[in-house]
Amino acid sequence: MKGKRIGSGAAMLAGALAVTGLAFAPSALAVTPTTATVTASCGIFGGGAATLTATQSGTSATLTLSSTAITAPIPLSANSITSTLTMANSTGSARVFSGTVNPAMATGAPITVGPLNGTVASGDSLDFKGGSLKMVVLGITVTCTTSTAQTPGPFVF
Predict the structure, then answer these.
(1) Strand partners, 86
(2) Model pTM score
(3) Is the separation of the CB atoms in 134 and 83 below 8 Å?
(4) Of 121, 122, 123, 105, nearest to 113 (Cα)?
(5) Does a structural domain hold residue 110?
(6) Are 31 and 56 in contact (CB under 8 A)?
(7) 3-class secondary structure for 110-148?
(8) 8, containing H or E segment
(9) pLDDT tens, residue by residue, 125-150
(10) Number of structural domains, the chain?
(11) For this UniProt entry, which residues form the secretion signal (predicted)?
(12) At 29, phi and psi to the nearest 5?
């Protein structure tokens, strides 16, 4: 009987500690907005409207760029584009997101790169204007830029 009480008491104490831990756990960080649009010019890939999608988990973040106006000039295999996305940061140094993640694309297919990984700090305010996307495809570097701010506004982490 004594062993049963100790076991029950230990379970209740563990439950109470778990609830207390949840009450004092830091709230999850979230980027806002999660999507933005920009008009980009990308040389041989073309140019036009592009969508940026952002996610955040603590100080880690990802950005994905996709566009039906910016297209693959040749057939591209999956994970064959080395991408570096530099975002201007109104609160400090520019933030860089990089990776080699892309779906397979036929000639003329809409371009998608990402998710590209990077590090952010609380309060970062990132905009594609003032930054760039560099894609290396078969040894050829293609750079995308814009002269207008993204809408509805910068990503705030």
Answers:
(1) 96, 132
(2) 0.80
(3) yes
(4) 105
(5) yes
(6) yes
(7) EEEEEEEEEECCCCCEEEEEEEEEEEEECCEEEEEECCC
(8) helix 2-24
(9) 999 999 999 999 999 999 999 999 99
(10) 1
(11) 1-30
(12) -85, 145
